[in-house]
Design brief:
Organism: Aquibium oceanicum
Order of helices and strands: EHEEEEHEEEEHEEEEHEEEH
Pfam families: Glyoxalase
Keywords: Dioxygenase, Oxidoreductase
Oligomer: single chain
GO molecular function: dioxygenase activity
Radius of gyration: 18 Å
Number of domains: 1
Number of helices: 5
Strand order of the largest sheet: 2-3-4-1-13-16-15-14
CATH architecture: Roll
Helix content: 10-25%
Protein name: Dioxygenase
Distance between the termini: 44 Å
Low-confidence stretches: none
CATH superfamily: 2,3-Dihydroxybiphenyl 1,2-Dioxygenase, domain 1
Length: about 300
């Protein structure tokens, strides 16, 4: 069993419209845009990152906005809901805020003994806020969301699968332990994690296969401290029979990818070097930062990409 993984690192999804996406995460959710760059494999598409002040692993939601993409079809083989942690007693604030701002899909319930507010993103993305006691992670404090109510980072992701057995076995190998079950949902947790500690497996044997599109999670990334730990994880996964990519330099972390038995794409990403490697912390996310191999395209990309200035 692996002991290098420290919880979630980031969650990457797809959107249709960059400015709408930016407004939702920096405005409605009060997160900081910590990086404005482009998709390594499709540089005519943004890669936008949102999180706390420095983009601490376990707080960062990222997006590829594809202007011509169709909306997703929910189903199995995908991430169902991405859940953020907020302080206890704050769901009333968030419900009032979302109602006044016209956020869709609002519903209050309780899950695993935690109060939860579900809501939808601009592309029908499935999100929820969960009240968490004593989450020590520092929020972004320069939005209009008061610090006492602000999002702390990820709480969990749920995986919607036809059969969760093989994926549960994989997560167990990755260091996750089962902690609770509610109906068709099993919760697993990483001991001693970074705060973004939970993965829920929602088993839907009769569900149709999900169709990827705007509002879909593209992949879920798990955090390791450094490249040495990442190489240990890669070797162990390959020894177990998984097909894992070589290590890929993503400028702000190093990444490896592999497909899970349930169809969800997993990434293992390093906590190093961080989002301040090419920008001062005070100005994260302001300038368009390009990977070295795409720097020669800057003029054409700046003309093509939808301006995002706020």
């Amino acid at each position: 069993m692996l002991d290098q993984i420290r919880g979630l690192h980031h969650v990457t999804s797809m959107a249709k419209e960059a400015r709408q996406n930016n407004a939702f995460f920096t405005g409605n959710l009060g997160l900081r845009r910590v990086k404005k760059t482009v998709n390594f494999d499709a540089p005519d598409v943004y890669h936008l990152y949102y999180g706390n002040e420095v983009g601490t692993p376990g707080t960062v939601m990222t997006y590829f906005p594809f202007p011509n993409i169709a909306r997703r079809h929910p189903g199995t083989g995908e991430v169902g809901t991405t859940v953020f942690s907020v302080p206890q007693g704050t769901l009333g604030y968030w419900q009032n805020r979302f109602e006044s701002e016209g956020v869709d899909g609002l519903s209050l319930d309780e899950s695993f003994g935690e109060k939860r507010l579900s809501f939808a993103g601009p592309d029908g993305d499935a999100f929820a806020l969960v009240e968490t006691a004593d989450d020590p992670r520092e929020p972004w404090t320069r939005s209009d969301v008061p610090a006492d109510e602000a999002i702390r980072g990820f709480h969990s992701v749920s995986l919607r699968l036809k059969d969760g057995g093989a994926t549960e076995e994989l997560l167990g190998f990755m260091g996750y332990q089962p902690v609770d079950t509610s109906g068709n949902v099993k919760r697993l947790a990483i001991p001693g994690g970074n705060g973004a500690d939970f993965v829920d497996i929602e088993t839907m044997p009769g569900g149709n296969r999900a169709g990827l599109g705007a509002g879909s999670v593209h992949h879920v990334a798990f955090a390791v401290e450094n490249r040495a730990k990442q190489l240990e994880v890669r070797k162990s996964l390959m020894d177990t029979g998984y097909q894992v990519t070589p290590v890929i330099d993503r400028d702000y972390f190093w990444a490896i990818y592999f497909r899970t038995p349930g169809g969800v794409l997993f990434e293992v990403a390093t906590n190093e070097p961080g989002f301040d490697r090419d920008e001062d912390t005070a100005h994260l996310g302001e300038a368009l930062k390009l990977p070295t191999q795409h720097e020669h395209l800057r003029k054409s990309l700046e003309e093509h990409l939808q301006p995002i200035t706020d």
